Amino acid sequence: MLTVLPVCEKDARLLKTLLVWIRQLGGCKGHQAVIVADAATPCDKVLDLQNEASKSFDSVEIISTAVSVDGWPAGPNTLFLEAAQFAEKAGVPWLWLEPDCTPLVTGWLDSLEVAYRITGSPYLGSLVFCEKPGMPPVSLAGVAIYPPEANCDMGFTISHNKGVAFDISTACVTVKKAKNSPVFQHLWGEAKRPPTFAYRSITGTEVFSLQYIRDDAVLFHRCKDSSLIRMLRWMVKMEDPETEKIAVMLPFCSKDEKLMQDTLAWMVELHGRLPRTCVLHYDSSVNGDILKNIMRYAGQAFVTVLVSRYPPPRAPHIGWPCACNYAFRMACDFMEWHWSGPWLFFEPDAVAIHPDWFFQIEREYFMGGKPFMGIVIGEFDGIKMGHINGTAVYPANVKTYIHEALANWKAAWDVAMQPVTCKLTHPGNRIMTHCGAVVGGCCKWGNGPPNNFPDQKTVDQLIKPEIVFFHPSKNGSLIGRLRERKRK
After folding, report:
1. pLDDT tens across 47-77, in order?
2. Measured between alpha carbons, how far is 76 from 169 in angstroms, rounded to an integer?
3. pTM here?
């Protein structure tokens, strides 16, 4: 079976992630591949993709369009025609595998080939039914297996309908010869809201859990943020070799050392050891026995544990916010010397909600594409804030961005850095929340009674299903309720 891998410059990273996942599933020995690249795709990226694909396929060729064709659907149409002509000359059936596809099991390509041979139909994939005016009532989803003569069947129609996606313009040709197969699972999603995958599905949204995947499917289309691959890796405790890793900075002092101890103990119970690095950031005032417990739990919750020990704050760095600013500045200094990637500042009163909380934050950060990510504090009590809460993801070179804010000891660093970070921040509010106070049974940014979780009803009332990270819970009641849920 020939596998066609179409790519343009903006999809190169997504295709690389797919190819790494294919290799982790055991590769596709006995099969060939061809990379069909848009002419504007940088040569070094295409060669890198070929190198990765060669680890899974017996052979990998590269072909390219004569000129670059940008935009949808003209770009994909051009790549498809190039692939169809190549397969026609090779005389073999071929799988059109777009970068937003996700193989689901080991031996997925063998299963597709067997299904194709058994059905005996020239075209095999997912038949899509549509009642939208102007659209064909039935079409074959583009990700499918095509015969060698596909160029003869479809080429003319695609060439003369450049403004229409190839699977739509050729429906009148392909559907008559196609067979619907359960080994393909296809979900287009709503406009600008392709499906994404998380630990728990959210009714009425584009967020799905792995339970959505059919047992008989071996290939899913279309997941554009690699979240399905991440969830599949998570289920089998498999590392992601391609994603730049985020470290977790865990700051504490003698005032909140017990809270950090409980927070880490909960992480161990929630998900066990994460394949990530944590940094224990504390001053020498911390109780020795509690510190031993914290270190023990940290080793059970993270694969790697680094230690950042700094002198206790002294005048003028006493009290809030000076002492907090001092500790954060020490954290920035340590990470500058000991870590080359982004890091999450996880304060003792923050709480992880779901087992995959960290991977969701990591995914959201890299998809956001900005140096900072956190909970953007909006307006409350007539005050326009607009800064990110301090429990946020920071870039490796954070000091180069916020050096002026770090020099201002008397203003909380998260507020002081707002003029710089406001345009450099990806809001994490979709999966992270800050509940500084509770008024009328609802969370507020601040100015009111602190939150408390006496029962499960309060958890459901204050925390939306999609939230994976909550801040702050200073009395430990939230962890208590989450433990109760997990043990049911």
Report:
1. 999 999 999 999 999 999 999 999 999 999 9
2. 13
3. 0.66
